[in-house]
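User: My collaborator sent over this chain with a note saying "see what the structure looks like." That's all I know about it. Can you take a look?
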Amino acid sequence: MGKIIRKGAVLAACIVIFAVFCGFKVSEMSSLREFSSPYLGEYECTEALLGGKDILKMFKTVTLTLEKEGRFTIVAKSKAGVRSEKSGTYAYEEETSELVFRAERKGKTYEKRAKLENGSFTVSQSLSGRELVLRFRAKT
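Assistant: Without extra context I'll predict from the sequence alone. Here is the result:
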């Protein structure tokens, strides 16, 4: 049982580490599409791979919420009961339909882009030599 809790904690930490490297910030709204903000809301993680291995099965839920004020929150709840949460900022680029993730860590700014198509997007991050890939879909 302790091994399962440790695995759940490690996997939740992976998702939170991803969130640390991927902040979001909203640019100034200048068009009807930006004003209506169709990208706002909750997204559920539909696939989570670490080095090609499915880690989503270790979680009850992984939810990312995009809020009006350019804030996001990602919450991961493992099946072992470990809850991890990270908040940050986001930006949506209307011209490219991309979410732009930015975060600072140790004085460096990191940026990731994810194409938002049909209410879904995918983000990847190298993590200890392995690729962490998270796919999200708008909750219905």
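A starting point for your reply to your collaborator: The chain has two helices and nine strands.
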